[in-house]
Amino acid sequence: MIALIQTIVMALDIYWWLIIASAIFSWLYAFNVVNPRNQFVGSVGNFLFRVTEPALRPIRRILPDLGGIDISPIILLLILFFVRQFILTTVAPALI
Hints:
By secondary structure, the protein is an all-alpha fold. It is built from 3 helices and no strands.
């Protein structure tokens, strides 16, 4: 059972970094730091969008319009942190 919990925590950690990478990539793309016509850049951006958008879309629907500022990645990171800490402090000790 501990192996399952460790695998879930590892998946949450990987998703955490994918959300941060997606946010940074969107800033680089918005400010024309990266070349959008480059095939590698496009495929990385497409991958990050497809991985993170299903989790960010419901949060964006709930949040009010903040005038171009998207805080949905921050909200999602807080949710992931809460779930991770809940698993490590409540679920894991109960199984040991």
